[in-house]
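Page 47, continued from p. 46.
Same chain as before, 118 aa.
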Amino acid sequence: MNVLLLCIGGGIGAVLRAMVTARLSSFDFFKIPITTLFVNLLGSFLIGYLFQIYTASHAAQLFFAVGILGGFTTFSTLSLELLQMLQQSKKRLLFVTYSVLQYVACFIACWLGVQFHL
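Result:
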C-alpha cells in the first residue's frame, strides 16, 4: 500500500511541476531559473505545513510529503542548474547568489509552513 501511495503521489507531483514550469517559463527576464526557485519555495512551505497537519497519519505523510511534494520539488534540477552556472566562468557570482537563495529561502519557507499551522 505504501508503494502505491508513493507512486500515485509522485505522479501527481510531477504533473503539477510540469504545469507550473509551462506556466512560468515565459518569465525569462530574471537571471535565475525562477521556476525551480518557485517550485522549491512552495514545496518547502507545504512540507512544513503538511507535516504539522498529518502528524498522526503515516500514510498521509507518505502520500503528500514524500509522494506529491517529492515529485513536485526539483533538487536534481537545482543541482544541474547550479553546475551549469559554475561551468560558465562569468556566472560564478550568480552561482553563489542562487545557491544561497535556494537553500536559505527554502529553509525559511519550510519553517514558515510549520509556523503557519501553529
